């Protein structure tokens, strides 16, 4: 039967190509997403600044968080923990360097600090010159003394020049004593200060960011470090040089898992629909095989053999090209700052194996379902069964539909009753797929019902061609449903995901705008010196000015069951002082309560609740004194100063006065719109990721739509010929095909809209209190237009080709 399968494939190139395309693109996307996931898991980052040090010691960037309240657990029970990632760079005690020098075999120990700096208009990172050996840099000129710097060769500044260098909120005039050249390409430009100047400008006295260790045994160094830090060697050193990679790697894993899983589920339905349609078009052939003595087992083996041959070829091509697509997606994410550009893309054999296994499993399952019905027909009924479609509702379809509808309903209830704020998208997203898969399982029956409901308007518009199109749609509902399903998936996924994203963006921007009382902002990428605050407050027209710091904190005591591994967003403002904190009313705390927190760099601090305020659900944050929060951020200073205008003072006049007052300082002044635009741009990054990955899946379903409709229409040449011989003109046949395409598009759009509504409505009720999403109606109209155009083009073009030539010749062609 395997040889027979190979021979039949040669004669059915259209079905071969259709199945190949469906499997190939599905496996390609799953393989690419697997590469992204592997890159996130590995989080391999080439070492740059620390390349020469074989052993690097850094701060512990993770924090153990108990999953259950330790006070309620039995002392004999094993506590369960999860790791939270600290938002700020965690340093190590400078005294640790002295202990490491005493480790036997250690030949040199070098502490390293890194801080943001500006040389004129160029951005760089400042370091102490004695840490240049960690790369190592070569020097042309002299090492810097106090008031001098060594600059990166890429900056193009000559030795002897004197220029302003800004760091840690201050600007100083420094003489260039030398030029440093790195042995490899570096992501960031460097400027080297004397040890004293660097220690002052780093903003964290008594701490190193990392410590490079030369010589010595790794085990001995690890024992000397103990709990004071972490020890890294090899490629893991890059995680200490670029700690942001660790968090980005986790995000990349989630993105790839969601997108790959969604792609795999879509692939199952697309491949199943394509194989089912291909097998259904061969019913006469399969019936004849049964009539001449082919056993059910042989028939199933033949169908499975054909599917496996096509599947293996498609999977082989997808595995070769999967890393190419994965690399392109990774480059797009890096170019748009979704992942750090220093993170390395890695794709080994495992993603290819998973993609191949998932794709072939989908092919085998689809082939089994497709061949099962034909193999169960008795030989005496075979030809009759081939002529007319009969039972389509199988137990598998019914059970699948019931489970999917039950799951979609459960997720909708959970979204409305349990979820708050944007986190509701975590349950709304999967609900789209459950509703879509449930409808896909019973799509032949739903298609018949929808065609019946649309009978009167279709007949009124299209006349006799419409009546024939309606009859075709209802009689061959299984074939029609094969075309409806991918369009429904595309419409449902596109509409739901895009409007979920636009609604999230709108709510986030609204929440930010509601809380924003500032009329202007003074900002600096190197931090604002505290003296700037007093200078700004003295500007005419300024009613108030507050430092603004953002970070993440973790609540240690009392146990907070609502806290996840991402911690709580924290805001630092000048209005608060000491160790007070303002908490949201959903926090469950009262004025006077004491909280034990871990700040962004892991520093423990006890704070007292000074106020409880109402905040928008899903956007809650803790408000702390800027003087308490800022020193425990990577920058060490507040990066922004929010300014409020006095009554009667115009915002434009206020910004003008602020620019005059801060002239010569390394700051930028903007109005309220700058803050809102910056916040909106941050949301756009997340939206861009969603649009890219969802767009990739939608592109796959679009290919499947064209694939299915072209295959289904191209096989109807004999049918079209018989219609023309019975009195239809070629134009009437094409109009009939056009009406069928319109019907398919309309039914798919209605079902797709219903699946999208099953996710959008519960989400919007939670985040906006309305059943309608936020976002322009043009999005929905564009989705509809694309669906209609695809359906019509994919049907009319092959129908036009199938009706060329004489009708009598077409009727002589076998099915």
From TrEMBL:
PROSITE patterns: PROKAR_LIPOPROTEIN (PS51257). InterPro entries: ABC3_permease_C, Macrolide_Exporter_MacB. The chain crosses the membrane at residues 252-275, 307-329, 349-370, 398-420, 432-454, 475-500, 688-712, 733-757, 777-797. The keyword Membrane applies. It is found in: Cell membrane. It is a multi-pass membrane protein. Residues 260-377, 692-803 form the ABC3 transporter permease C-terminal domain. Keywords: Cell membrane, Membrane, Transmembrane, Transmembrane helix. The keyword Membrane applies. It comes from the Bacteria. PANTHER family: ABC TRANSPORTER PERMEASE YTRF (PTHR30572:SF4), MEMBRANE COMPONENT OF TRANSPORTER-RELATED (PTHR30572). Belongs to the ABC-4 integral membrane protein family. This is ABC transporter permease. It comes from Amycolatopsis heterodermiae.
